Amino acid sequence: MAKQIFINLPVKDLQKSVDFYSALGFTNNPQFSDDTGKCMVWSENIFVMLLTHDKFSGFASKPVADSRSQLSALFSLAVESPDEMNRIMSSGLNAGGTEPVEMRDHGFMEERTIEDFDGHTWEIFFMDMSKFPSEK
Known about the structure:
Elements: E1 5-11, H1 14-24, E2 27-34, E3 37-43, E4 46-52, H2 53-57, E5 74-78, H3 82-94, E6 104-105, E7 109-115, E8 121-127
Parallel strand pairs: 1-4, 5-8
Antiparallel strand pairs: 2-3, 3-4, 6-7, 7-8
Helix pairs in contact: 1-3
């Protein structure tokens, strides 16, 4: 089996979250989805499991945090161009996401931030390694 990553996120409104992540470009894998959780696919090896709070709590030994008021993680998705980054952001914002900070340009990397309905924070970024500062 290939190395893969499954990010599990607790969500309050499963369908609203599926619609949001679909707008970002994720697709649903019905094979690993039911009424309590949806498997959203970013790539061959990257998956986001959207789980109702009850379902998520069944896997956790701590209370579910309120990610709308506290940040526990930043998730980052690399894309192939600034245009793709901007298209994904526009789609996500149109689907109800929020952009808590302005776009940042680090010279070799441009990044934008979007939050879903539950406050889960995603960095969408494009990196141009030819502009990466070299050691002198």
